[in-house]
Every structure is written in C-alpha cells, then in structure tokens.
Amino acid sequence: MNRGYVVLGGLLGLSLLVNAVCIVRLNRPEAPPAARPSVAKGGEEARQDPSVPKATEAPATTPTGAPSETPPAKAPAKPGTGPSFVNDPKVREVLDAQDLFGAYWKDLDRVFKARDRLDDASYIKTILAATGDYLELNDAQRAQFADAAQTAVQALATARKEYEDGRKALPPKGDKNDAAARAAYDEQRNALDARYDQRFADVVTNLKTPLEPGRARHAEFIAHMDKWLKNLAKTAQ
C-alpha cells in the first residue's frame, strides 16, 4: 500500500517538472528570422541571377589610375626645323642676329614714323639707345658710337643741303627737241647725284669705325646702316 503511494507521488512530481519546462519555453521570445545576405551588383550571386543587371566594366587604367589612352602620333618634323637644323655655331649666331634685328627694326620703325611729333633731341636719343642695346655696346662704345652718329648726321645734312642747292642751279632741262640742252642738264644732274652718293658713302664708312664687322649683330646692322642713317638724319634735313 505504501509502495503505491510512493510511485504515485513520483509520477506527479515528474508531471509537474515537464509542465514547468513547457511553460518556460512558451514564454521565451522568438528570435527574429536571419536576414538574407545582400547581393552586390557584379557579385557572384548577381551573376547567377538573370534578373540582376551586370555591372559595367571599368576602363583599363594605367598604374597611376588614369584611363589608358594611346598617345596620338606625332607629325613628322618639317625640313629645316628642329634643334638639328643648324649645328654650326657661326651659322646659328648669324641667324639669331637676323631674328633679333627684325624685332629691333620693327620697334624702331614706329619711332621713325613718329618723328614729326618728336623733338630732334628725343628722336635721336631714342634711336641711339635702342641701337646700342641691339649692338650690345658697353658704355665707352656707346659714347663713341653716339659721337660718330652725331657727326654723320651733321655731315649728311650738309651734303644734302649742297645737293639741293646744286639742283636749283641746274640749267634748264629744255624740251625733247633740244638735244644739246637736255645733254647739258643730264650731265650736270648726274655729276650732282654722283657727288652726293659719294658723300653719303663716306659718311657711312666713318660711322662703321666704332663697330666690329666680325660680330654677327654688327655685321647685320652694317648691312642696313644706310637706311638707318637716312632715317636718323631726316630731322636735320
């Protein structure tokens, strides 16, 4: 009899324990469903899913990260250009002197055209200063060249005045039917022109004295000295 009570009590205790465990599990909050892994564009899963568009392939880049480009083909150099065109330093010096003279003369020509609005002193001073710069004269050479230029201007002004006076003294030219009169006029006119041309040549020669024809810049200037001197001496005419 007592043994039956013991078994019955054990079964009741086991039933209570099972009920307690079930109650605890029912009251525990459910864990949220695990999130599905996202699929990046261009990833392995995206390539497997036809509904996901494929990522655009990036352009090939250079090691620096910039898109690689094929450099355009260079045009062939024109004959007569480039650093290998002139290897002789003497030839290069002459060509450089010509280029520099062109720039110098272009600026000087503006002064020539403005001579009517400039006084003689400013006009001559400006021309001599610009010329001294082009010729790369030192202070002593500038002074010597300026003196020679002033002397040349005065000599040319004198020669020009004598030439104009000589033209006024020419005999009448006569008409085309008077051969003797035309011959006399032409002879004296030609002699007058030749005398003036010789005076001018002498003035130019004297002006060359302070210069060095062996220097490229000086040689280039001497080649145009007659035109330079005519423009310089216009104020004295």
CA(first)-CA(last) distance: 165 Å
State mean pLDDT (0 to 100 scale).
77
SS field, number of helical segments: 8
Q: Which structural category fits the helices and strands?
A: mainly alpha
Uncertain segments of ≥5 residues (pLDDT<50)? 37-50
β-strand number = 0
Q: How does the overall form come out from the CA principal axes?
A: elongated
Oligomer: single chain
Strand content: under 5%
Rg (CA only): 53 Å
For the biggest sheet, the summary is: none
SSE order in H/E notation? HHHHHHHH
Portion in helices: 55-70%
Chart the SSEs and their pairings.
Elements lengths: L1 H26 L16 H5 L40 H25 L6 H16 L3 H30 L10 H29 L8 H8 L1 H8 L5
Which labels suit this protein?
mainly alpha; 237 residues; 0% strand; 8 helices
Provide structural commentary:
- The chain is mainly alpha-helical.
- Helix 3 packs antiparallel against helix 4 and helix 3 packs across helix 7.
- The termini are far apart.
- About 6% of the residues have low confidence.
